[in-house]
Amino acid sequence: MANKVLITGGAGFLGKKLARKLLERGQLGGRAIDKLVLLDMAAPAELNDPRIETLVGDISDPALLARAVDRDTQSVFHLAAVVSGAAEADFDLGMRINLDASRHLLERCRALGHAPRVIFTSSVAAFGGKLPAVIPDDFAPMPMSSYGAQKVMGELMVSDYSRKGFIDGRTLRMPTISVRPGKPNAAASSFASGIIREPLNGATAVAPVSPETRMWLMSPRLAIENLIHGHEVDAAAIGFPRSISLPGLSVSVREMVAALREVAGDAVADRVQWEPDEAIKRIVESWPGEFAATRAKALGFTADASFADVIRAYMADELGR
Fold first, then answer.
1. Alpha-helical runs (H) found in the chain
2. Alpha-carbon torsion (197, 82, 99, 14), positive or negative
3. Which residues make Cβ contacts (< 8 Å) with residue 139, sequence separation at least 6?
4. Whole-angstrom Cα distance, residue 172 to residue 243?
5. Which listed residue (77, 127, 147, 287) is catalytic?
6. Other residues' Cβ atoms within 10 Å of the Cβ of residue 51
7. pLDDT tens digits for 48-63?
8. Residue among 107, 127, 148, 124 nearest 250 (CA)
9. Annotated catalytic residue 147
10. Quick check: 94 and 87 in contact, CB under 8 A?
């Protein structure tokens, strides 16, 4: 049986970075990667390798999922999602992609009969309401957004499908990823990249939350390393529940701008403008700002050393400086 790996959301920023890293590694789970399938609404650019197969279409289409997942599929990285702001604005779209499509994907994996390994990406948005300063591993999720609720429902499905032996699932609750290149998206957390990316590119950027708002962050570099590590960790070491809150950096938005000032100077940092947006504040300020992540650290997951280092990594990886 061939070793086929599927990445949903494979044309997205993290999907492409993950694909490049897997192709560079050449193996996953101790076996050579024979085929890497990238499923998304558009074909990924700048990925040319004979091991790549591209599938373009809506992940909620059962016929497309039937093509994406077959008897050779050994591993699935499920990154595809409608992001937080869009899921809040369009409830039906969020439910169709974030919940219904996830269940259809798990059903396809179940039908294979060999329990493929499934990495499901969840979010800090799984938590909300009255929160302690630091979220312990046993704290119950209580999302305060449609996106967060859809992610929690996905987490529960992954754990139950794993308990039944249908899949070998692992849910990774990812911190907000910063700094992302490219254009802003509809995520409520999009500003966490924009307030660094735009000033470095010579443009102004708006911080729509209060300066003291704390965020739980991870660099793209560490996100890819932790996604792959999440696949490679032994299932017996993970146990149950299958949901793991990953380590990250707890920084206030004020501290993020201060780190930009440290790395790039006053002229760059002064391009950040503070303009509160109540809709974004309501979503972002319901999220926790720090996790204990004790279990994840014991399993070998890692965090960035400082947000200044995160900015430097972005400049090196995306700006060539």
1. 13-25, 62-68, 84-89, 91-94, 101-112, 146-163, 191-200, 220-232, 235-238, 253-264, 266-269, 278-284, 294-298, 307-318
2. negative
3. 127, 131, 132
4. 6
5. 147
6. 16
7. 899 999 999 999 999 9
8. 124
9. yes
10. yes
DSSP for 111-155, please give it: HHSS--EEEEEEEGGG--SS--SSB-TTPPP--SSHHHHHHHHHH
In angstroms, rounded to a whole number, what is the distance separating the alpha carbons of residues 128 and 151?
13
Write out the two tokens for 187. 């995520």
For 273, the 3-state DSSP assignment is: strand
Q: What residues contact 96, with CB distance under 8 A and at least 6 apart?
A: 60
The residue count for the chain: 321
For residue range 177-203, what is the model confidence (pLDDT) as tens digits? 999 998 877 777 899 999 999 999 999
